[in-house]
Amino acid sequence: MIVATTRTALGSTFVLSVMVLSACSDRGTDAPDVSASVPSPDLAEVDSRHGVELTADAWDRIRQMAEVPALRPNPTNRVADDLGAARLGHRLFFEPRFSVDGTVSCATCHDPEQAFADGLAVAQGIELNARNTPTVLNAAHQRWLTWDGRSDSLWAQALEPMENDREMAGDRLSIVRTVRDDESLAEAYESLFGPLPELPDSLPERARPRRDGRTDALSEAWAALDPQTRDDIDQVFVNLGKSLGAYQRKLLSGDAPFDRFVTSVDSGRYRPVDEFDDAAVRGLELFAGDAGCWSCHAGPMLTTGEFHNIGVPPKAGGMPTDSGRYEAVQLLKDDPFNAAGRYSDDTTGPNARLVRGLIDSPENWGRFRTPSLREVARTAPYMHEGRFKTLEEVLRFYSTLEGAVQLDHHQEKVLEPLDLSESEISDLIAFLRSLNGSPSAPEFASPPF
Does domain 7-67+266-321+373-433 have CATH number 1.10.760? Predict the structure, then answer.
């Protein structure tokens, strides 16, 4: 049973939760620093104009939500910030020939017109998938990728959908051939990585390993290749992934109405900001104050990057069957393309050490990564199964926790019903809509042709 508490008490409850979770989490360096504090501006003008009472503590949290840092370097990918690699990755992202039937590309599910998501409850590639498509906007700021965190870099994550049976169902041998046989792609590739390998004419039409331990015709064909040929193909495959990773590092957004509001307040000469009205300010006050949303959605990406089981009821009813982070930890450790693997460009650095040190626990069962809230109003539906169609549905769930299934052992410290009024739900939605920004690199925010 979920025991209700007052929202005023919720903030201190969450602080305890973060302390407990830190002791048993696998988070990396993406968790925001909530310890630093600088003097708050005079908030009297904001309070009087908008009918709120923003506290100094709340303003510290708000400021940190607007202070988007420069991207951290990714030493596991030596071309992570190479413009030529980003341009090649841009082309690869929209390339359907990598799929088994030539109909599906990365952009099929990550559509620029839909904030690099797809607007569907669950992704539709070659087959229907089981999870909602997360946006790749601002994904470069995340330590773990996908809902369960089974990838630790953009480049490694980009490789999985190409061969996933439900997504693109391609194979790395065919993909390498496609690049080799396309004069323009081959030229772009070789300008970055050197000559493409010579592949024997005797190779099968298709071949790839499986990641799930099963065997099929394609994995048997892969196993029959000699080790040098497999390595040559893998290296090209990895380089394509690293180019895709470089491209996705360009998919950043910023200058949202919320960001402009914080800049205006901190300037000491506050002027109201278009698209950040009274309702948005009231919603921000709730978000950073009594509602306690900041406890999981803190920092410049409005996420701590932690994994939680918040009890969202499965769409099919009954108890959850998706293990989430529980299986993902081992998948990540077994991934030959992780930060510690032989194809990483930094096998001894902090990212590699973090992967090697990951320890799984049954407590991870059913936990999913807390998503960023930047661009959230553009990426419906919500939750890992696309359970909720609108932000209003999400907030009503948090308000009542109606239908919530049994949560993990941290549940009583992490989540309580918020008991929101109708006006509070409207105000929070107004704030969340203010997190829609504009692309930082517009030339990469649309197809390359």
Answer: yes
